Amino acid sequence: LFKGTPRECVVHLGPWEVQESKERRVIWQGANQNETLEHYFPSSEPSDLHPHTLHNRHRPYNDPADVERYITFQEPHRIRYINNEGVCMHDEFMDVKYEFSSAESSVQFQGDLRRKDLVDFYDTDVVWTNIHGRTNSFGNVRGVATLQRLKLWRDRLNGLYSLSIHQNNASRQYVNYNLEDFRAVTMPSDRAKKLRLEALHQDDDNGRRPVTENRRQLGRRGSEASESRLQRRPTDNIRYLAIQFSERTGNLPPLYQSYLL
After folding, report:
1. Average predicted confidence (pLDDT) for the chain
2. Would you list the DSSP string of 77-129?
3. Of residues 238, 22, 228, the one with CA closest to residue 128
4. Could you tell me the residue range of the domain that residue 183 belongs to?
5. Do residue 129 and residue 225 come from a single domain?
6. 71 inside domain
7. Domain co-membership, 77 together with 154
8. Are 130 and 97 members of one domain?
């Protein structure tokens, strides 16, 4: 707190609890009795929240899993801190940084924030689409994202899988991709380290996009659910999503027929 001032300090935190209210937030118990820290989220929609962790290349001497201990966010969040005497010492927006004691606790925390289990993560060299190619006009590697950590999630309510990645070369925002919107998912061979996901689009002639129930659709029927199904998705404008992995790869669920680059 109070970064860059004489009052700058680090707050040591204990257990947390995510409160689902109009102002969605996580409440931390401090190391001292009656000490609390409230972290308010900018959106009440869990899928809009993206805890950010770095590609392992930024910490080359750490185990890839250990990098998950360090979490930041892409925008300032409101932090309210009450000391052990019950006095509010801080209530303003700031850049939030967490350092967890273990990767396991960080993974649990990220899952609680997004209401999705973090199944695995994959360091990538480059991610690209048919719109944003792997290289630019000068032959430099670019795509939509370079040296970013791709994360695989499973929704705690409906069990659907999704991928998220920070597109640092395109929108400069996080983008979620529902795996139900793709035709092929497979892990690459050790040599290729590449994966291609073909997008499924609604086609008036012969193509069909699968109808995927999301969290909102499960609680709604009739016209509301129909409108939700027509919401635009990241795959609406692309034909494929291609991924070139770094050294570490994991195991994507074998949901679809494989298609390697």
Report:
1. 80
2. EEEEEE-TTS-EEEEEEE--EEE-SSHHHHHHHHHHHHTEEEEEEEEEEEEEE
3. 238
4. 115-261
5. yes
6. yes
7. no
8. no
